[in-house]
Structure formats: structure tokens, C-alpha cells
Amino acid sequence: MQRKFLPAKWPVAGTCRPISALTRTSLQMTAGLYVKYCFLFLCLLAAVALCAQNNAPAQLKQQFKNPPASSKPWVFWYWMQGAVSKQGITADLEAMQQAGIGGAYLMPIKDTSATIPFQPVVRQLTPEWWAMVNFSMQEAKRLDRAR
DSSP string spanning 35-64? Predict the structure, then answer.
């Protein structure tokens, strides 16, 4: 029994017919159209890019010099071993503002477990510590750093 989707006899090597002139011409036309459409697409893309960049360099330069608040970097602000004071909070936040920092993530590290040269220390999660956190939020708002 012979299957219909297979050729009756497989061609022997070297017996394949060459591509006909009609097929060769249609392939050349298809390749020519492909090149033309690619060229047209690239020209259109270049025109759009040139129109979009007409004002872009000046605007980009201005935004680079004065970035919007949404693109300013944030930092981790560590309060280490309870060494925190109102004067230190104000100095840190003002320095962050001068450096162009957009905001800070407050992170206390180690409680007052070690003896440090800073006195008085503020234990984490005590009412005094929460007062310092509230003060830092007030200072951030004063410096327009609150988000």
C-alpha cells in the first residue's frame, strides 16, 4: 500500500530539476520587494527619530542638571547602636538635601548592646526612640523630603 503524501519514488542524488526561470524571477521580485520595504521602514524610523529629537538634547540637558524629585536617589539611613540625637538628625537630613538625595529608608542597627562613645544612647522602640523618629519626619517635612 502506497501513502499518498509521499512521492512514489525518491529522487536520486543529482537528478533534481533546476529552479525554473519563472520561479527564479518570482524569488528575485520577492527579494527586491523585501529590500524596498526594509528601506522604507528604516527611512520612516529615521524620520520619526529626527522629529522626536528636535527638542530632546536641550530638554535632556536641563533634566540632567535639575532632575525631578521622582528620579532622585534614595539611601539607607542607619541609626547605629542608639547613637542618635536631634542635632545629628537635622545635620544628616540637611546634608542629604544638599547632596540631592530624594529620600531615606530609616534602619536602626544593633540596639545599645555595645558601649559606644556617644552619650546618651536611645534604646530602640522606646518612647524616646519613637520621639526621635517623629522628629526626623518633622525635619524631613521641613526640608521638603517627606514622601
Answer: HHHHHHHHHHHHHHHHHHTSSHHHHHHHHH
Grid coordinates given for 90: 537635622
Under DSSP, is residue 9 helix (H, G, I), strand (E, B) or coil?
A: coil
The DSSP symbol for 124 reads: T
Please give the tally of structural domains in the chain.
2
60 and 78 in one domain? Answer: no
Q: What is the DSSP letter of 82?
A: T
In a 13 Å sphere around the CA of 77, the CA atoms on its Cβ side amount to 21
The pTM assigned to this predicted structure is: 0.53
Q: Which of 88, 76, 77, 75 is nearest to 121 (CA)?
A: 88
CA-CA distance, 127 to 118, in Å (whole number)? 19
For 51-90, write each residue's pLDDT tens digit. 665 666 777 788 888 878 788 889 999 888 878 889 999 9
